Fold this sequence. Notes:
Radius of gyration: 20 Å
Strand content: 15-25%
Number of helices: 14
Distance between the termini: 16 Å
Oligomer: single chain
Shape: globular
CATH superfamily: Luciferase-like domain
Order of helices and strands: EHEHEHEHHEHEEHEEHEHHEEEHHEHH
CATH topology: TIM Barrel
Helix content: 25-40%
Amino acid sequence: MKAFGFLSFGHYAPVRGSATRTAGDMLHQTIDLAQAADEIGVNGAYVRVHHFARQSASPMPLLSAIAARTKHIEVGTGVIDMRYENPLYLAEEAAALDLISSRRIALGISRGSPEPAVRGYEAFGYTGSEDPRGSDLARDKFELFLDAIDGDKVVEGDPQMVGPGQRLTIEPLSPGLRDRIWWGAGSRATAEQTGTQGLNLMSSTLLTEATGQPFHELQREQIERYRDAYHAAGHTRPPRVSVSRSVFPIMNAEDEMFFGLPSRENNDQIGVIDGLRSTFGKTYAAEPDKLIEQLKADEAVMAADTLMLTIPNQLGVEYNLHVLQSFAEHVAPALGWKPNWEGPVEGYPLS
């Protein structure tokens, strides 16, 4: 591990104990937390994207605001659901965000996770999928998105405007943007495909596989297969790899109350998502010295260059900054962490 950031689901609801009672609360607090995190050396600020739910949805306005108020921190998503996206418009937005942030983005994109709406992407106007989960739709649109950010001429020009026989690129373009695009892979097979494409790998706290192995071993194998496929395809840039975990240093009575005993006793879980038996990772919550031991034993955390800490955003900016600062001061240095002012994060070289 070289770097860590926070991953916010962006929950909001007018319920007891929530500091984010409205969408406005959630958005402003995410910006404030990212700005404070930037100042203490945290490497990344990432947001989940869900539709038809009281969670963060359209990420580009939020990430642009964060980028404008920070200097070093990477801004990104975990992940954008490509089923809901116009690939050319997303390409324009991604390039603009990349330029605003001075190339500090890490855009995680994937087919997406289950949503509250049944085939909700069709309500956004994207129909024609023959897969009940919309995977074919997402993949086709993602390929067009990649072509567009690479500067391919994706549309025929109007002869009266640009002359005969001309094709046009999207604008703006941001050179090297593909190097900052990640695919959210939920299995070993999709990780291999991601490596072949030369993209970065974003893996979360679940895999849509259940082999009987501990989650961290299964995920470490996923990372190895990804890197092998990346190398076999002839890519040479050190690839980025991130994993996400729920990690809470127990520093005081409040931490113990929120995340102490229940988290200490939990283990990996087996469940069903999208009809597939899946393995879910556990929550880590312990005193810093114990956390260091536990995370060093987590093979996937140590194989990845970036660890995303999922945060309880409804507990507010002050508490979540406390979690991040506790991790930065008492845990991360022992895992190999370098603060953001030491430069952009780079992936581990291919062996």
